Amino acid sequence: MMLALTVGVLIAGAAFLLLQQDRFRVILGFILLSHGVNLAIISSGGSDRRDEALVSGPDIATTADPLPQAFVLTAIVIAFAITIYLIVLAVTGDDDDTTTESHVGPDADRAEEAP
Amino acid sequence: MTASLIPLFIIVPLIGAGLLTMISNSPRLHAAAAIAVPLASTIGAVGMVWLFTSEGPVAHGVGLWPFGISIPLAADMFNALMLTVTGLLTVVCAWFALATGIGSSRFFTPMLLVLLAGVNGALLTVDLFNLFVFVEVMLLPSYGLFVLSAQREAPLTRIAGLRLYVTLNLLTSTLLLIGIGFVYGTAGTVNVAQLAGAATDDPLVAISMAVCLFALSIKAAIVPVYGWLARAYPSTSPAITALFSGLHTKVAIYAIYRLYAVVFDGDARWLWIGVLLFSATMIIGVLGAVGESTTRSILAFHMVSQIGYILLGVALFTQAGLTAGIFYLLHHMIVKASLFLSTGAIEVRYGTGRIGALSGIARREPLIAVAFFVAALSLAGIPPFSGFVAKLSLIFASVEAEQIGAVIVMVAVSLITLLSMLKIWSGVFWGKPSSSETQGGGGTATLVEADTRRRVSLNLAMPAVVLALITTGLGLGAELLLHLSDIAAAGLLDPSAFIAAVAS
Prior knowledge:
heterodimer, A: 115 residues, mainly alpha, 4 helices, elongated, B: 504 residues, two-stranded antiparallel sheet, 3% strand, globular
């Protein structure tokens, strides 16, 4: 239950931040979102078994499921890579980091064109 | 024996990309690799298609661990056909990119090869989490390719488009990831073969899989969530739009087909949702297209509309419906790339794709004009070309499944498709050749004299022509591809042979 509550709080925070105006808050929202999802995946392995899977001859009744741990380990590095790229994108381009661009798309590209 | 060769589809491009990044700077070697590696992938895939006309699916457990523990890679007729067409499109778009100049960027070829490896992996894998990983492998080099431009300095709008593209894809991938987490929590496995039919037995698994399918639907740009594609795709360079048009959304479509066929076992209870959403996609996509004013944004909205057609095949879930959907998928990837390449060639040389800014291109560039016209008629579904076969078989399949509403939508949408294709034709190709502004290297606009000299070189025009010839060939000789699609559809309708191959 504690895990579910934490995931809920994280994802609610993420949803709020993703809808904010400046880009850095959006990135923080994505960080919260991937934290929430990673916790959800960890809890999918069952949260009642808490022993680490690092001993020889683990007792399957008490050892945590290692597969979701590998999933999360992979997901962390992927989210990390994309977050770095997003941060670089936030400082490239326009000099401020606001997200309220009305002119995404090819039309803005050719604003200087003859009518 | 053949099964253990399957990982080569992923290994060869990955090693090639790594080697090219590390050891060589030679533009000639990079250009050769950008053509040769995807070509090798295509040839390998054609070999598999030939194999599957007589044999059943093959599978390989990576690392040779037992079934259920290893990550399985499997191939049957459906993904062999997908591999063939995606490989072919990669070759043609790499050719076009080299002709436009963006191919000479230092990391173009390595990123292209990683993209190819990601696509091949996502098509071959039979494991949900591995699908997520390969989708990311496919997306990350795409983010790099998105900002490449011939002038080495991307315009600001391109960065704005890329921000939208990355943000949307990160959100969607995270949604896919949590769906996979739920599947693991409810079903205890993420191996698609072990999940066979699980969504029909257990509503919890069905909800978890629905989250995954929803995430894939966003990636495929169906109607409630399509705006990102129409805004992001036109803001990159023409060669990259053409490349992405055949790969990303189509991999998502492949995954939707495969997952609904295997995990949901084609459960007829939920098909109405598909029919409803995909019909709405056809209508809204095409309405967006007639309202646009540049060639590439029209084509991007058309893509949304055509994705509705393709996915309708899985919403019918009959032998005829799946055959038509798969045929439509393969036909559409080729035609859409051809359209993006022909209009892209004009955009590269004339500096604009705005309707009305150009005229009389047909007289000046007859080759491009013919390629565009053929592909446009094929997209609208006019008899000699492959689009006619695709639409006709989809309409027959819908009538057979008694989805009369969808039939009416398909016919009406075809008319609007033709209308907007004629809008491009009359706005860009028809009329008297006029003087037009041209963008020089640094973006300085200079007025040039009206002339009838060709400006699109043969090298730049040929990629679009080659794909236009293929769609004509598929229209005249549709029997072959229909037969192959039929085998692929049979594999989806009854996935037991596929599952058995993975499980052994």
